[in-house]
Amino acid sequence: MSHGIIIIPTYNEIENIERLIRNVFSLQRKFHILVVDDNSPDHTAAKVKKLQSEFFGALFLEERRGKLGLGSAYIHGFKWALAHEYEYVFEMDADFSHNPNDLIRLYNACSRKGADVAIGSRYATGVNVINWPMSRVLLSWLASKYVRVITGMNIHDTTAGFICYKRKVLETLDLDKIQFVGYAFQIEMKFKAHILNFKIVEVPVIFSDRTKGTSKMSSGIISEAVFGVINMKLKSLFNKR
């Protein structure tokens, strides 16, 4: 059995999912994959089901009733991975913005170098983003700086969604109390690992914008991240008291 599983949330990723799955399974280190699909109208789940016979015992699918949010998809996947006794649990986008080859680097950061959480970081060594308009690069970079100042986390890419967690981190966090469902979910998970003194490291990666399918970014997701961070920090201070 593989020690690591990659959780890939999907909603209308029919153009990307097969190629991504094949890329991951072609890596030298063997990982399992769990696709969490939110009832994609483009039949992403059906494509995954067809591939399951080819990758029997390594490719898994969880289908949900509708579009319930990125954060809840990952929480669903985390609980599934813990129940199936995986030691290393990854977050990864379905759109090839995260390079599958970097999975091994994240894994090694946790398995060999002592990290509890390894973040595939766009900003650890400057700005490593391809194919984004400058306005979006600036927004993302400033958001990470803002979160870093508010929370006190020594993390350059606080909104990153390419991550490896050791099992003990997910077991320690109360997953049922994670509040955010959009991209602020990524901030909340890092912040809660931070205040519990888990060792968090950043692994520099190059982030490339999707070339197929459509982005799920929205103004509501951005506002959740901006205003939610302040509430999250304040609650942590009151809990300490």
Automatic annotation (TrEMBL):
One of its GO terms (cellular component) is membrane. InterPro entries: DPM1-like (IPR039528), Glyco_trans_2-like (IPR001173), Nucleotide-diphossugar_trans (IPR029044). Keywords: Glycosyltransferase, Transferase. GO terms for biological process: glycolipid biosynthetic process. Residues 6-172 form the Glycosyltransferase 2-like domain. GO terms for molecular function: dolichyl-phosphate beta-D-mannosyltransferase activity. The keyword Lipid metabolism does not apply. Belongs to the glycosyltransferase 2 family. This is Polyprenol monophosphomannose synthase. The lineage of its organism: Bacteria, Pseudomonadati, Bacteroidota, Flavobacteriia, Flavobacteriales.
